[in-house]
Amino acid sequence: MTVGELIAQLRKLDPELLVVLSEDEEGNGFSPLAETSAGWFIPADADYYDDDDEDYEPYEGHVKAVCLWP
């Protein structure tokens, strides 16, 4: 899902609703959304590096992404 697709879905909802995140695909727990950050997603490792991480260098195959943090 892209940011644009997420915005389109969120525009259909009441802006006063609380945003919660599922802890896993089975819905075994939920937490409120606490913050967002921009960074890099590494699909091969299922890992993420924040733009503020000074030790990270993007490589081929790494994807610019937004992370939603519980």
Describe the structure.
The protein is mostly beta strands and 70 residues long. It has one domain (18-69). Helix content is 11%, strand content 36%. The chain has one helix at 3-10; strands at 20-22, 30-32, 35-42, 47-50, 63-69. The longest helix has 8 residues, at 3-10. The chain is globular, with a radius of gyration of 14 Å.
What are the defining features of this structure?
11% helix, 70 residues, single chain, mainly beta, globular, three-stranded antiparallel β-sheet, 36% strand
At a glance:
The chain has one helix spanning 3-10; strands at residues 20-22, 30-32, 35-42, 47-50, 63-69. By secondary structure, it is mainly β.
List the helices and strands and how they pair.
Layout: H1 3-10, E1 20-22, E2 30-32, E3 35-42, E4 47-50, E5 63-69
Antiparallel strand pairs: 1-2, 3-4, 3-5
